């Protein structure tokens, strides 16, 4: 199955927001909607998405979740997915850092709470969930075929911050080592900044050594 992908840089930080579709079925997914932007809905139509199956959240910080409710309003079939350790971020604007940035956050409902090793069916393939605590205790990476949506766990030549109260700094290096130990190479699509691939990060990222 070929997955067609596009992305947008949205929000104040800004965040890489990914949109994908199986063109054969029209089933689609959205990763980390930082804010709602009509251009994303327009892109869904252009890409032929007729069923937004999942809204996948890599973690619960404001810059990855504040667009969820509006997209769910427009696509009520979409299932919101987050790790169980970060569910509280969806209803707590202090925990999600929304309040400290002077923004407002309506409560967000999670449909699927995932844990390490879970899989989410997507037509004839699946998303694999890897729990990567560090940036937050419930941070995850989603694998789809040869694509890695790494959120704020793995960046090009770097990794996510672990100095927040809700972080788990002792777990970041083991989480990165878990990614480094995966078989094969992956296209690394992070929550911010430039794309990379796992082989490059294994060889060059000082945080993965």
CATH architecture label name: 4-Layer Sandwich
In round numbers, the mean pLDDT is 97
| Domains, number | 1
Please state how the strands of the largest beta sheet are arranged side by side. 1-2-3-4-5-6
Q: Which oligomeric state applies?
A: single chain
Protein model, in words:
46% of the residues are buried. It is built from 4 helices and 14 strands. It has a single domain, classed as 4-Layer Sandwich (Metallo-beta-lactamase, Chain A), CATH 3.60.15.10. The mean pLDDT is 97. It is of the alpha/beta class and 209 residues long. Strands 1-2-3-4-5-6 form a 6-stranded mixed β-sheet, covered by helices on one side. Strands 7-8-9-10-13-14 form a 6-stranded mixed β-sheet. Strands 11-12 form a two-stranded antiparallel sheet. The chain is globular.
């Amino acid at each position: 199955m070929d997955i067609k992908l596009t992305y947008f840089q949205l929000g104040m930080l800004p965040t890489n927001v990914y949109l994908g579709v199986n063109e054969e079925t029209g089933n689609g997914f959205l990763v980390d909607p930082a804010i709602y932007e009509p251009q994303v809905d327009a892109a869904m139509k252009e890409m032929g998405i007729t069923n937004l199956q999942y809204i996948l959240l890599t973690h619960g910080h404001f810059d990855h979740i504040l667009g969820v409710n509006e997209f769910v309003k427009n696509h009520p079939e979409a299932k919101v997915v987050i790790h169980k350790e970060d569910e509280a971020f969806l209803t707590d604007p202090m925990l999600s850092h929304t309040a400290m940035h002077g923004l407002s956050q309506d409560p967000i409902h999670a449909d699927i709470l995932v844990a390490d090793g879970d899989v989410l069916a997507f037509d004839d393939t699946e998303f694999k969930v890897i729990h990567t605590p560090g940036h937050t205790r419930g941070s995850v990476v989603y694998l789809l075929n040869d694509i890695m949506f790494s959120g704020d766990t793995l960046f090009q030549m770097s990794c996510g911050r672990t100095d927040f109260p809700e972080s788990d700094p002792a777990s970041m290096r083991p989480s990165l080592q878990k990614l480094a130990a995966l078989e094969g190479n992956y296209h690394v699509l992070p929550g911010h900044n430039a794309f990379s691939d796992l082989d490059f990060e294994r060889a060059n990222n000082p945080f993965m050594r």
